């Protein structure tokens, strides 16, 4: 990850809505990947499988970034002149 994750999280319970605050906390922890880290660390992960997983995550991040860049380039709405040559 590009930034360090904070261990502690604070979610405010408003008007006694504990279930809503719990859902919000789960959403925050899911987005940051803390649940994934927890699930991975429950059992021992062999070093070869860990290397494969890390390499896959790196390749997937590069692919996703490249595809996002390509989509941004090819979408006509993102160009300065969306209809080239139609003047």
Automatic annotation (TrEMBL):
Gene Ontology cellular-component terms listed: ribonucleoprotein complex; ribosome
Gene Ontology MF: a single term: structural constituent of ribosome
Entry keyword set: Ribonucleoprotein, Ribosomal protein
Entries under Pfam families matching the protein: Ribosomal_S21
Alphabetical GO biological process terms: translation
UniProt similarity note: Belongs to the bacterial ribosomal protein bS21 family.
This protein's name: 28S ribosomal protein S21, mitochondrial
Species per Swiss-Prot/TrEMBL record: Galendromus occidentalis (western predatory mite)
């Amino acid at each position: 990850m590009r930034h360090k994750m904070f261990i502690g999280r604070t979610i405010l319970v408003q008007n006694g809505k504990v279930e809503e605050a719990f859902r919000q906390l789960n959403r925050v922890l899911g987005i940051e990947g803390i649940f994934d880290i927890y699930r991975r660390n429950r059992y021992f992960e062999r070093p070869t499988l860990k290397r494969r997983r890390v390499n896959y995550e790196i390749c997937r991040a590069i692919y996703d970034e490249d595809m996002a860049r390509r989509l941004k380039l090819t979408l006509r709405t993102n160009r300065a002149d969306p209809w080239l040559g139609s003047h």
